[in-house]
Amino acid sequence: MAETLPKGTAPIFLILLTMVSFSTFATAGGFSKILSPAKLGLKREKLSHLHFYFHDIVSGRNPTAVRVAEAAMTNTSSTGFGAVFMMDDPLTARPEPSSKLVGRAQGLYASASQTEVGFLMVLNFAFTEGKYNGSSLSVLGRNTIFSAVRELPIVGGGGLFRFARGYAHARTHTFDIGTGDAVVEYNVSVFHY
Ligand SMILES: *[C@@H]1O[C@H](CO)[C@@H](O)[C@H](O)[C@H]1NC(C)=O
Ligand SMILES: *[C@@H]1O[C@H](CO)[C@@H](O)[C@H](O)[C@H]1NC(C)=O
Ligand SMILES: *[C@@H]1O[C@H](CO)[C@@H](O)[C@H](O)[C@H]1NC(C)=O
Description:
- The protein is mainly beta.
- It has one domain: Beta Barrel (AOC barrel-like).
- Helix content is 10%, strand content 45%.
- The N and C termini lie far apart (49 Å).
- 23% of the residues are buried.
- Residues 128-129, 133-134 line the site of one 2-acetamido-2-deoxy-beta-D-glucopyranose (NAG).
- Residues 70, 72, 75 line the site of one 2-acetamido-2-deoxy-beta-D-glucopyranose.
């Protein structure tokens, strides 16, 4: 029988057999199954664009970002290596802080480079306006704040942004060297359902 099959068929059979037994195993395990995307209401993937301004206020009596940790060497490092900040930064439609609030950036940024000012950013954009009210995007990226434009990956999301993936471009709009306060423009492109 085997010698009548064309060359290469046997390995393909073997691979198929392995795949079938793997999926049977997963189902038989009793804790997982294959779902159809339609069952979750996932129809057509869209590409959306969002544009907003991020306000990082570190000075004054009501800062929106606070230093929560540092290393012994942080104060002598020219890049502040080791400093960790927690933020709850407003996101607005226009650069003016008084413009319409569309959400908040909540999470951490930490100085992760010893050779330039480069932050590890771990945060959620939690939207509070319009159809994305209650939905969020999760960011995990690198932010070299003195570069003209920084790209940060969008690694997921919730609500209308379930299964999201994409990227954000950040550009400093204003930076007050005296206080450290900054307004940053964000353009976000994201695939989601
Ligand atoms: C770093 O400097 C700040 C401000 O001067 C001070 O409050 C803090 O204790 C210093 N940290 C260390 C680890 O020396
Ligand atoms: C956003 O959703 C919350 C919770 O459902 C609601 O209280 C709030 O009024 C909504 N905001 C806007 C601007 O629609
Ligand atoms: C965002 O997009 C606008 C319009 O295309 C552009 O003018 C602006 O420079 C972009 N900003 C960033 C940070 O990518």
